[in-house]
Amino acid sequence: MHVVLLFALLGVALGAPTTQDPSTTPKKAPPTPCDTTLQWEGRSSEWDHVREYNNRFLISFDGKNQRKRLMEEKRSYMPGHRYIEYLQFYNDKLEYQIDHTYNVCTKLPLGPWRNHTIPDDAVLEDQYDVGQPGHAIYANEWSDRVTGRYKEEWIGVFTSAKDGCWPLFEVYSKDEANKSISYSTRFFNLSAGIKDPSVFDIPDICKKVQLTPLPDLPTLVNEVQPTQAPGFFAKIKAWLFQRKNDSSDKLLKKAGVVKTWGKQMDQI
User: Which of 140, 180, 190, 259 has a Cα-to-Cα distance from 154 of 20 to 30 A?
Assistant: First the structure.
């Protein structure tokens, strides 16, 4: 009897377990934009929604000096494709495109800096796991959404600050008066630092090249194909354009011959 009474008194003293009101549970604060490493290298895959074209690059990113180096990866299933190296110096607003197939350099004006990092005023859109359960990477999705604007211009997916704040995926889209730009870019095989800073050295063939104005229509990373490059397809394309002024060309247009072949040549 005394033992039972002792346990009863202990139960009253310790108190019975209670269920906590969910409304009083402190909410976890949403993450704030983390800082990506300022210098890194890796690979990227970029889809140009305007040109409907995909390309893969080796990328060296230098956020300290606002410059990038992109080198197209060679793909064996694209015979005859020209491989371009892009040296982008945003402080000078200049880009050099080196065609390694024909050893030709083109110098172009450069647009605004694309930082591949999270802006301080970015809006957290979503959080989710990427990959296999138990081995997944926790990712945060950000945007530059502001009240009153029709749509976002930038959406970026990054790992959490705990996992290094690395870029995983990015969408950039901007409509202007005379052109539209829209890219989706995936980043992978990334590593901190730049192993060889000489990748940003301007080659001799570019040092005396004159500045070329940008075309009205945007292409992949502002690509302008060098006009000096010879080749069978270039000659055929030039011949097709000359045929447009020929009166007999009207019959070919009705048959769809010139229209079809001209479109195919434009895609080469």
Answer: 190
Q: Report, as ranges of residue numbers, the positions in the chain whose pLDDT lies below 50.
A: 1, 3-16, 217-241, 243-268
In whole angstroms, how far apart are CA 39 and each of 90, 185, 242, 258? 15, 18, 48, 49
Residues 139, 126: contact at Cβ < 8 Å? Answer: no
d(CA 146, CA 82): 40
Give, in degrees to the nearest 5, the angle at Cα 115 between 125 and 214: 115
Look up residue 134 and give its amino acid. G
CA dist 138 and 163 (Å) reads: 8
- pLDDT per residue as tens digits for the range 148-176: 777 888 999 999 999 999 999 999 988 77
- Whether residue 172 contacts residue 114, with contact meaning beta carbons closer than 8 Å, is answered with yes
pTM above 0.85, yes or no: no
Q: Measured between alpha carbons, how far is 100 from 61 in angstroms, rounded to an integer? A: 21
Q: Cα 268 to the chain's mean position, in Å? A: 23
Task: Please name which of 175, 171, 133, 130 lies closest in space to residue 154, comparing C-alpha atoms.
Answer: 171
Give, in order, the Cα–Cα distances in Å from 30 to each of 27, 130, 160, 183, 227: 9, 19, 12, 28, 52
What is the chain's alpha carbon radius of gyration, rounded to the nearest angstrom? 28
Query: For residues 263 and 89, what is the distance between their CA atoms, to the nearest angstrom?
Result: 34
